[in-house]
């Protein structure tokens, strides 16, 4: 999962380590060169100064020919040793490494291209680059913390910053909420909403919570049959009306059933729609008025990349989602949607669909995902 993005992040780390090591070697070489110039100047000065006690000024021309002197009397370093290189060498001599702008310039450009080519949204990529730069530039660290560790920490913090926006524990929220908890699923056609509902019902059951399915997709032919198959396979109660019925009424009936039968969670399906479909968006507004769901979850495919990010933002603007579920995450090499959606919408990703089975629903853990992307698990 997200293997392409993993490889690109790994390449960035390797580039920074290589560029920093090269810069450190150059700085050390410059410092050595400066020391050699100073040594030769001292030798020339000693040879030019007579042992008879004459003024040391007599030997000045010879010293000047050996090395150019600074105002304080110290020989100047050669042109290859500027303040930055000497600072770097001084840090190295005391057992530390230092990161400069020149070390990051090209790797950061490559990282930006890598993120964008992985379908990470532009503002999200900018935020990641800004955080990495802030955490690395001018940092001096003990050598026991290697450059690779330093860049890994910077990437870890930058990625976690954008991925974990708005994150909350759904299981804890359900445990603390008045029952039944009503969850409505929305999104475009064909992205796996109904299957995700079935998977979440299984996930809840494994944690001791009962659930009822309510088919608010009264628009699509065959919708009742599809969700009924899942309900029967999972041994769950299904609330459904005839095609063309009122979606709000179906989900409301599901809530009433749950209240009467001590069911913990109502999982309401809705018709796939575009945010520009006025009639179907009006249905969501009515569901919100009639049922007042505790959570509205947006479902899309991870493999849709930036299209999924854009749709999530549009649905949040139109229907105020509370979180997202990304399906087909196991088939996604890029990872752009998983990286971007929470930051763009301000609402968390709660689950990743990672297979076809009912138990192939993975709770979205930002820390765990970042560690996985950086090869730390």
UniProtKB/TrEMBL annotation:
Source organism of the structure: Halobaculum gomorrense
GO molecular function, one term: GTPase activity
GO BP annotation list: SRP-dependent cotranslational protein targeting to membrane
Localization in the cell: Cell membrane; Cytoplasm
Pfam families associated with the record: SRP54 (PF00448), SRP54_N (PF02881)
Keyword set, alphabetical order: Cell membrane, Cytoplasm, GTP-binding, Hydrolase, Membrane, Nucleotide-binding, Receptor
Biased composition (Low complexity): 60-70
Top-level taxonomy: Archaea, Methanobacteriati, Methanobacteriota, Stenosarchaea group, Halobacteria
GO CC, alphabetical: cytoplasm; plasma membrane
Record has GTP-binding as a keyword: yes
Membrane topology note: Peripheral membrane protein
Catalytic activities: GTP + H2O = GDP + phosphate + H(+)
Taxonomic superkingdom: Archaea
Positions with a binding annotation for GTP: 187-194, 269-273, 327-330
Entry function: Involved in targeting and insertion of nascent membrane proteins into the cytoplasmic membrane. Acts as a receptor for the complex formed by the signal recognition particle (SRP) and the ribosome-nascent chain (RNC).
Biased composition regions of type Polar residues, renumbered to the chain: 19-28
Protein name listed in UniProt: Signal recognition particle receptor FtsY
């Amino acid at each position: 999962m997200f293997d392409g993005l993993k490889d690109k992040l790994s390449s960035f780390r390797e580039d920074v380590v290589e560029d920093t090591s090269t810069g450190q070697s150059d700085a050390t070489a410059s410092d050595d060169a400066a020391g050699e110039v100073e040594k030769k100047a001292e030798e020339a000065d000693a040879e030019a100064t007579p042992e008879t006690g004459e003024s040391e000024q007599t030997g000045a021309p010879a010293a000047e020919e050996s090395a150019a002197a600074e105002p304080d009397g110290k020989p100047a370093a050669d042109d290859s040793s500027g303040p930055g290189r000497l600072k770097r060498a001084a840090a190295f001599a005391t057992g530390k490494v230092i990161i400069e702008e020149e070390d990051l310039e090209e790797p950061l450009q490559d990282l930006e291209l890598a993120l964008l080519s992985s379908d990470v949204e532009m503002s999200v990529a900018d935020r990641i680059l800004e955080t990495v730069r802030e955490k690395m530039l001018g940092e001096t660290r003990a050598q026991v913390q290697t450059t690779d560790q330093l860049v890994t920490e910077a990437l870890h913090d930058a990625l976690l910053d954008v991925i974990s926006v708005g994150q909350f524990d759904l299981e804890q929220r359900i445990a603390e909420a008045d029952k039944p908890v009503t969850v409505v699923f929305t999104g475009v056609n064909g992205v796996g909403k109904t299957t995700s509902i079935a998977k979440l019902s299984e996930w809840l059951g494994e944690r001791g919570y009962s659930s009822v399915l309510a088919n608010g997709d009264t628009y699509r032919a065959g919708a009742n049959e599809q969700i009924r198959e899942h309900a029967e396979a999972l041994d769950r109660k299904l609330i459904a009306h005839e095609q063309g019925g009122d979606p709000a009424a179906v989900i409301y009936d599901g809530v009433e059933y749950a209240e009467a039968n001590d069911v913990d969670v109502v999982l309401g399906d809705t018709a796939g729609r575009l945010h520009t479909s006025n009639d179907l968006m009006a249905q969501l507004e009515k569901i919100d008025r009639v049922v007042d769901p505790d959570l509205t979850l947006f479902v899309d495919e991870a493999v849709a990349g930036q299209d999924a990010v854009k749709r999530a933002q549009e649905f949040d603007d139109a229907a105020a989602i509370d979180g997202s579920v990304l399906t087909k995450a196991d088939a996604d090499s890029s990872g752009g949607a998983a990286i971007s959606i929470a930051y763009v919408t301000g609402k968390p990703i709660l689950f990743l669909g990672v297979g076809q089975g009912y138990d192939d629903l993975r709770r979205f853990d930002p820390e765990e995902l970042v560690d996985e992307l950086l090869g730390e698990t």
